[in-house]
């Protein structure tokens, strides 16, 4: 692909580095930015720079935040007796979008994956342990840990490791239900998912 400008080529190259964006899509985006008012493009650039330089991690749960504590940890109306353990911020957003969960979170920053060289020490597991240890005599002590991790071998390995680490705290440790999605047909479900659905069956009220 030949470009009429080296500046455009450089911009396209950088935009194409974003996930899911190829060279053609990157070129379309760059040309779109060129058509916009310069002030709008400057605002976009400033927003991206501010995001990269000012966004930090919550000191308590490791979620992305503008301040030392994220908006969830700083919200006194959240249920401090429950902590949902997730892999990353995208999972926090996914759970929050359900509007069904009112507790707190702990973001691990990944899952145990020997293939990728990620071990327990690379995750925010020790900070979870310290968080629980410091919470034992709090006004609202933690009573339950929800392990909301991906239903993969790596996710299950991480959950198993966490269960062992959390056992001394005598907490209720639960995991999100796994089964047939709403609107799904049984004949298209894999054996593992269908089996877990049967094991996790619920009683009609």
Automatic annotation (TrEMBL):
State the source organism's domain of life. Answer: Bacteria
Pfam families xrefs: RecR_C, RecR_HhH, RecR_ZnF, Toprim_4
- Which residue numbers delimit the C4-type Zn fingers? 58-73
Limits of the Toprim domain? 81-181
Any GO molecular function: DNA binding
Checking InterPro entries in the record gives: DNA_Rcmb_RecR, Rcmb_RecR, Rcmb_RecR_Znf, TOPRIM_dom, TOPRIM_RecR
What are the UniProt keywords, alphabetically?
A: DNA damage, DNA recombination, DNA repair, Metal-binding, Zinc, Zinc-finger
One biological process term in Gene Ontology = DNA recombination
What does the record list as coiled-coil region(s)?
Answer: none
Q: What does this protein do?
A: May play a role in DNA repair. It seems to be involved in an RecBC-independent recombinational process of DNA repair. It may act with RecF and RecO.
Q: Which family does it belong to?
A: Belongs to the RecR family.
Protein name in the entry: Recombination protein RecR
